Structures are given as C-alpha cells and as structure tokens.
C-alpha cells in the first residue's frame, strides 16, 4: 500500500494534466479495492495531487523569470552599446547554448541527425529564422528608445498579429470576441505609447515622447516579425521538425545576420566595462535556456497553460525594471499592459486552435 501510494505521486504527477487525472482515479480505485476502509485516508491524499499545479507549469514560470532577466540585461546593455552589437553577442551566446543542447539530444535521438530535409522544409526554416532575427533585433532597438517594460508589453501583443496573419493568409477562423481582443491590444499600445496627438504632453516630455514613439514603432515591428515566425512555425510543426533544430537555426541566423549588419555599418565598439559584455552574453544564454525550459514544459503540460504563463512575462519585466533599472512605469502604461495581457490570454485560450509545441518554442 505504501509503495503504491508513493508511486501515485511519482508516476501520475509527472504526466500531462489530462492524463494525470485519469491515472490518479485509477490509483484511487485500486487502493480502495485492496485496502477497503483503511485506505480512505491515503486515497484522499493521493486525490489531492490533481489540484496541485504541475511541475511543468512551475518550470515554465522559472523560464519566464529567466527570460525576463534577459530583457533587463538588454535594457542595461543598450544604454552603452549599439543594439546591433548587443544582438550579435547575445546571438553568439544563444547559438552556442542551443547547439550544445542539440548535440546532446542528438546523441539520444539519432534520427534527428539522419533526417534529410526537403527543399520546402529548408525554405520554411529559413523564413522562420529571418523573421525571428527581425523580431529580435527590432525589440533590442525598441528597448533602446523606451523602458524595457513598455517595449516587452507591446511585443507581447504578438499573438494578436499572429491571429490576424493566420486569418488573412492561412484561412484560419477568428471568433467575434477575438476582434474585441484586437481592440484591447490597440488601446493598450496607445496607452503605452501615449502619442502627442492623442495625449497632452508637458514641454519637458517632448523628447521623451518622440523616443517612445520610435520605440513603439520598433516594438510593433518586432511583434509583427515574431508573428510571421509564429505562423511559419505552424508549417514546421505539421512537418514534425524538432524544436531544438528550429532554436539552433534561429540563433545561427541571428548571429550571422547581425554580424553582417554590424560590420557593414561599422557599429562595432569595445564596451567600456566588462560587465556589459557579461550582460550581453548572459542575455543570449538566458534566452536559450528559457526556450529550452519552455520546450520541456510544453512536452508535459497543456499548451494553453504554458502560453498563459508566458504572457506573465510582462509582469516580471515591470518588476525587474523597477528593482534593477530604477524606472517606475507610468500608470497609463500599467493599464495598457493589463489590456494587452488580457488580449493575449484571451487569444491563447481558444477552443480548438491552440498553438503547438514547435510554434511556441520557435519564438
């Protein structure tokens, strides 16, 4: 009895939520049959496990916190170094981290190396990588013009653009309520950007408003680029291409393209402090680790649950912005972020069109 009760938490608790409930019920019935009335107390304790948050959801939350630190690292680094150079060093660190994970995983899964990709699959991978690079470099530039919390809040409107792109180009359906979520998103972005033609600005805030408008444009461009990457990810998911392959190719594209742009524009400059280099390298490593943890969580928990947890990245970035950078967000930015967060969660919790593992990790 004791061994079986311990096995309940060890075996059932590691399954997906839907499978875990069935397993727990089966364990409960087995315990009741074998022990009769004496098994009621352990059975009740075992049944309570299904109400606890899964370990995979906790790992996803850790991944969100790690990626929030990555965003703040970029905010600090872009104050001293050109955003393109930040993208280059972060991309290098991201590529090394993801490639190591790919090699380790390939040792256990030989088919990952032996698979021959079709020309169309390579085109999808290339398109996803280029779109991912555009999103990565644009958000780094956007963070350079506005507080990191505001930029990430606008970036997290990506599911809205992904829904629109899927509706227009992939013939996917949109519910009536989704159009209200789109309106929420537009309102939230407007409250964060606070353009002068909509909001009265004091004279000292003129330059800040211009910079914030530029940051908003770059952040929106990043959201659109990631939305395109998201949509291409749907095609990659249909073809059963492993997420580690996508992460590695995306990070290699970030490294290669940012290197070309950086040296072509002669924007390379030696950072004044060594800790800036550590922040840029740490930003890439944290992003890669966060994506890998998200992939692990998605393989063990419902996609909708993980997607909602990822949307909470807005909250953690704002907290770190206050504690680390020392910038207190405007109350209108908080309201705008809340509207965007509501829209993202609403678009994510869909009845039959939830994103797959590959689509989420490809971002």
Structural class: mainly alpha
Helix content: over 70%
Distance between the termini: 46 Å
Strand content: under 5%
Low-pLDDT runs? 1-10, 31-52, 351-363
Order of SSEs, N→C? HHHHHHHHHHHHHHHHH
Give the beta-strand count.
0
The biggest sheet, with number of strands, parallel, antiparallel or mixed sense and barrel status, is: none
Overall geometry comes to globular
Mean pLDDT: 76
Rg for CA atoms: 23 Å
Please report the number of helical segments. Answer: 17
Pfam families: EamA
Keywords: Membrane, Transmembrane, Transmembrane helix
Organism: Holothuria leucospilota (Black long sea cucumber)
Protein name: Solute carrier family 35 member G1
Give the secondary structure arrangement, pairings included:
Layout: H1 2-11, H2 17-35, H3 40-47, H4 55-77, H5 83-108, H6 111-114, H7 119-145, H8 148-155, H9 158-169, H10 176-193, H11 206-238, H12 243-264, H13 274-298, H14 303-311, H15 313-325, H16 331-348, H17 357-361
């Amino acid at each position: 009895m004791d061994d079986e009760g311990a096995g309940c938490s060890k075996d059932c608790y590691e399954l997906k939520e839907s499978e875990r409930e069935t397993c727990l019920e089966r364990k409960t019935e087995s315990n009741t049959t074998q022990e009769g009335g004496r098994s009621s107390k352990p059975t009740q304790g075992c049944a309570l496990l299904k109400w606890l948050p899964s370990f995979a959801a906790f790992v996803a939350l850790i991944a969100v916190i790690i990626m929030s630190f990555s965003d703040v690292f970029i905010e600090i680094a872009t104050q001293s170094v050109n955003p393109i150079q930040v993208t280059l060093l972060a991309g290098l660190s991201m590529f090394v981290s993801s490639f190591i994970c790919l090699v380790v995983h390939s040792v256990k899964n030989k088919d990952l190396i032996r698979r021959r990709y079709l020309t169309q699959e390579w085109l999808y991978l290339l398109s996803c990588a280029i779109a991912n690079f555009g999103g990565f470099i644009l958000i780094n530039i956007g963070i350079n013009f506005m507080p990191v919390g505001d930029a990430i809040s606008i970036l997290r409107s990506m599911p809205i653009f992904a829904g629109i792109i899927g509706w227009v180009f992939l013939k996917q359906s949109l519910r009536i309520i989704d159009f209200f979520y789109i309106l929420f998103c537009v309102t939230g972005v407007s409250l964060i950007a606070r353009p002068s033609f909509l909001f009265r600005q004091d004279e000292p805030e003129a330059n800040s408003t211009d910079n914030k408008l530029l940051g908003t444009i770059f952040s929106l461009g990043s959201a659109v680029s990631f939305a395109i990457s998201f949509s291409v990810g749907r095609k990659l998911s249909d073809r059963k291409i492993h997420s580690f392959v996508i992460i590695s190719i995306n990070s290699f594209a970030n490294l290669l393209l940012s290197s070309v742009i950086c040296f072509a524009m002669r924007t390379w400059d030696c950072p004044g402090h060594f800790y800036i280099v550590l922040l840029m390298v740490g930003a890439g490593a944290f992003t890669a680790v966060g994506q890998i943890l998200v992939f692990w969580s998605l393989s063990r928990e419902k996609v909708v649950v993980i997607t909602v947890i990822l949307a909470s990245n807005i909250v953690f970035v704002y907290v770190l912005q206050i504690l680390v950078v020392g910038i207190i967000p405007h109350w209108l930015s908080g309201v705008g972020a809340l509207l965007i967060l509501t829209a993202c969660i609403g678009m994510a919790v869909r009845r039959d069109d939830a994103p797959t593992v590959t689509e989420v990790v490809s971002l």
